[in-house]
Amino acid sequence: MCSHRLLLLALLLGLAPMANAATVGTAPAKGVIVATNEAQHRVDITIDGAPFTSYLWATNQRKPVLFPLIAPDGTTVTRGYPFAMRPGERVDHPHHAGLWFNYGNANSFDFWNNSDAIKPADRPKYGSIAHDRIVSAKSGANSGELIAESTWTTAAGDNILTQTTHYVFSRTTVAGHPGRSIDMIVTLKALSPVVFHDDKEGLLGIRVAHFLESPTEKGGTFMDANGNPTTVAATDTTGATGVYHTSEGKTGDAVWSTRGRWCTLTGATTDGKTETIAILDHAGNPGYPAYWHARGYGLFAVNPLGAHIFDPKAAPLNFTLDKGSSATFKYRILILSSPAPDAEMNRAADAFDAEYR
Nearest 10 degrees: CA dihedral of 292, 333, 206, 144? Predict the structure, then answer.
């Protein structure tokens, strides 16, 4: 393994912790700090000195990711695998790491399922997303911003899309409780004609910690865009308490393949802490309101580019960008150490729609 990946794994495993105010003997930096470290292929985001998340590239994921996601009370709400193993966690789907943005079938190449776990003989079917550069990083009292550029490249070596992602990391309040939020405003520009074939594997995904998995999950076999099966074994659901809930009143297992302007996932840790992840769709997004690709085994994803795959009565979407054209997708991810009442989620969704016209 190359040296920068060894260093990154050491950082993720806590063997080479990030230097911060606490470790160097000074007071923690107040506000939302966005600290770039090009040499270690990461940007670290903290709130009042406490870790929130990190933007990582040059990992084994063949795409940039945010990892981990940490709630206001310090609870990690994302799965550790494949970066950091935790007892009792599932180790399926090695391409599910933290929070990511990609798609399962763009010009017949699979960007969603790719990682270093793919066998060399199968790699001609896949695409990868390479981080190009940090455009800007800005810290602030209540929010910080990061703008990064990347390129989607097929296994044939063709660059088909440029991606510009504007992240806004903020402290917030929901129903009187402190929260954290991540806005992702992603613009894809086509370098050649691109067809996002109707597919379930997209578009923004989070792989959650074990306690946010569904207690009713029994495992199963799932097919990707190339017809490759992945078997998710039934595991011990002790400690799994996660329940999905949408703006349309769908709950639990019934959420998958339904549409809604928001979806929450709420569960309790073994020591009784309530944690929620919410994803808000934006009224200006293509395919609004999106379908929820929300699985009990821990995949929480929003997909505006699938249609027929979720509803056999719907016509295939096959969203297309001509060369030189672009599309922008806006999502807000809320991370709360509290429940998320419907009324508060509706207000949050209204505010998000109004903020980005």
Answer: 150
- Give the whole-angstrom CA distance, residue 119 versus residue 121: 5
DSSP per-residue codes, 273-342: -EEEEEEE--TTSTTSSPEEEE-TTSEEEEESS-STTT-TTSPP--EEE-TT-EEEEEEEEEEESS---H
255-308: pLDDT as tens digits: 999 999 999 999 999 999 999 999 999 999 999 999 999 999 999 999 999 999
Distance, CA of 185 to CA of 179 (rounded, Å): 20
- Give strand ranges (E) for 112-142: 127-138
The structure tokens listed for 73 are 């009370």
Q: For residue 244, give Cα distances in angstroms to 63, 94, 137, 326.
A: 27, 23, 33, 32
Token pair in block for residue 97: 């790491």
DSSP character at residue 257: T
Say if pTM beats, i.e. exceeds, 0.85. Answer: yes
